[in-house]
Specification:
about 300 residues; mainly alpha
Length: about 300
């Protein structure tokens, strides 16, 4: 049933929760390794999604989907959550939260770029200008306002943050083009990723983490960044009569995230971060065009 008021409320809740992700990442990484955080978050998210499907009495649909296309779901799980979040969390481990989260928002620009070979889209000259300006913003953020110095806080961290946008954009395009139920697919990705994440954690991540604030932060990430919040967002989009009105709420997330980073982590927000974000935002508008094209394809 369409209900714009409910859609906006759910969309705002999702954006608010996503805005806390950068802070939760950094808090968890104070005590956990990247692979420990990845493992716990994936398992929590998988259990949350399975619980949701059980409540909806759709576990049978999930099982049928996994039986029909096991290699597809396993391959997609390797892209996201395994590779994507491994790169994102590694970037957060190397960079200040304000840099990592702002650079990560260029996934929307990368989505527009990848929509050309994948969907056959064409970008107008003004779109190319928005792309160029967006990546100038990345350089300004990564060099803390000294773009001509090309001295990064962590060149490896910047490379990981940018690389993660390629993985996410490719995952999003492939997932959308598959035409499968988004909630069933999301649950399948996390279920398929759970065992590999555990193996990686046991072999190279330091083992299962001990109880503590780091573990609680990891549980929070799994529930509110990966699993539950995607359900809120998907429900909001389905309930809206105007999807773009709800979709535009995502533009609140970068600024809200900076507020949490400043208040909870105590990071002083660098003026270069705000300037860079202002340059990145025009490129994010391209995502709406790419997203519409995917849905129409």
């Amino acid at each position: 049933m369409k209900d714009n008021r409910r859609a906006l409320l759910l969309g705002l809740c999702a954006v608010l929760l996503w805005s806390t992700a950068a802070t939760a990442f950094k808090l968890a990484l104070l005590e956990l390794t990247v692979l420990q955080l990845l493992c716990v978050a994936i398992w929590v998210s998988a259990l949350a999604l399975l619980g949701t499907l059980a409540w909806q009495r759709r576990l049978g649909v999930l099982w049928m989907s996994l039986r029909e296309a096991p290699l597809f779901f396993l391959g997609m799980a390797c892209l996201n959550p395994l590779l994507y979040y491994c790169m994102v969390l590694s970037a957060y481990d190397r960079l200040p939260a304000q840099q990592a989260q702002t650079i990560n928002y260029t996934w929307a620009i990368m989505l527009a770029l990848l929509s050309m070979p994948v969907l056959g889209q064409r970008l107008a000259l003004r779109d190319w200008g928005a792309v160029a300006v967006g990546y100038v913003g990345v350089v300004i953020i990564a060099t803390e306002g000294q773009p001509f110095s090309l001295e990064f806080t962590s060149a490896g961290g910047v490379a990981l943050a940018l690389g993660s946008t390629v993985v996410w954009a490719m995952f999003w395009l492939l997932s959308a083009r598959s035409g499968r139920d988004p909630i069933i697919s999301l649950a399948a990705y996390f279920v398929c990723a759970a065992l590999p994440a555990l193996v990686l954690c046991l072999l190279w991540g330091g083992g299962i983490p001990s109880p503590g604030s780091g573990l609680l932060s990891a549980v929070y990430v799994g529930f509110f960044e990966m699993g539950f919040t995607w359900l809120l967002w998907s429900t909001a989009l389905r309930a809206a009569t105007n999807v773009s009105r709800v979709g535009n709420l995502i533009f609140l997330s970068p600024m809200l995230s900076l507020v949490f980073i400043g208040l909870i982590l105590g990071e002083t927000i660098h003026p270069a971060t705000l300037v860079g974000l202002a340059l990145i935002v025009p490129g994010i508008f391209l995502q709406h065009r790419s997203g519409s094209a995917v849905q129409e394809a």
